[in-house]
Specification:
The protein contains 8 helices and 11 strands. By secondary structure, the protein is of the alpha/beta class. The strands form 2 sheets. Strands 1, 2, 3, 4, 6, 7, 8, 9 and 10 form a 9-stranded mixed beta sheet that branches. Strands 5-11 form a two-stranded antiparallel sheet.
Length: 247
């Protein structure tokens, strides 16, 4: 059983201001529960007992929000969050996750709990939750696949050649995690701090890492970047597709 998870909560959430004037996106309330509280609760339900949080913007608010958390929590701060991409925030978590299998989650997601269940059941060293149901455009983090094998990640990939969107939740075994953190360190040392962690996944795949697409097309999920996204999340909650308190 995978017992650790990394949540990336460093970004400033500027497109959601004024809601994010005093908190990161992860602490926005949707249906009576914050995005972060729901993620932690669902991870605990799946057997995770150690949460590693990559902080940046308003880090003190994240710390306060988890003061009474029943799980072990480690905070890993990215002081350069305004000038770097999420690959750097993930790299800050290396000492807390080295040698362990872990889930990695973006901190602005609402998701059905079965996303975690399906990833846990997948045997791949890098298992990636992929939604194949949506229309792909410039903004989505796209994947190219051959069957269930992921060949490439990237926002800049040609949508017509891609088979789905990586939703921002993965599971890595200990060996894949070691390869990832080594690659993240190399990227940061060489000044490539503008990379998404998915760009690093893609480079590792090109070097031989096996990555598998785990289909979650039938499960409700949403990323919250904008006020329209937030309204859509609220509609999912009111429709009962994402019950924030009773799942």
């Amino acid at each position: 059983m995978t017992q650790a998870a990394a949540l990336l909560c460093a970004g400033g959430g500027t497109r959601l201001r004024p809601l994010t004037d005093d908190r990161p996106k992860a602490l926005i309330d949707v249906g009576g529960e914050t995005i972060l509280a729901r993620a932690v609760r669902l991870l605990a339900r799946a057997g995770v007992d150690h949460i590693v949080i990559a902080t940046g913007y308003r880090a003190e608010a994240v710390r306060r929000a988890l003061l009474d958390c029943d799980l072990a929590v480690t905070f890993c701060h990215n002081a350069d969050f305004e000038r770097t991409q999420n690959s750097v925030s993930l790299h800050r978590c290396v000492e807390s996750l080295r040698g362990r299998a872990f889930f990695k989650l973006d901190g602005d997601l609402l998701f059905h709990p079965d996303v975690i269940t399906r990833l846990e059941a997948d045997p791949g060293p890098l298992s990636v939750a992929v939604d194949r149901s949506g229309t792909l455009g410039e903004e989505e983090m796209k994947v190219m696949t051959e069957g269930n094998v992921i060949e490439r990640f990237g926002k800049k990939l040609e949508p017509a050649r891609c088979s789905g969107e990586s939703i921002g939740i993965e599971k890595l075994d200990a060996a894949a995690g070691e390869l990832l953190f080594r690659a993240l360190a190399d990227a940061e040392r060489s000044g490539r701090t503008d990379l998404y962690y998915e760009d690093v996944y893609s480079e590792l795949i090109a070097d031989g890492l096996s990555a598998r697409a785990v289909d979650v097309s039938d499960l409700a999920w949403t990323e919250i970047d904008t006020p329209d996204d937030l309204e859509g999340a609220k509609r999912l909650v009111s429709a009962g597709r994402l019950d924030l308190r009773n799942v």
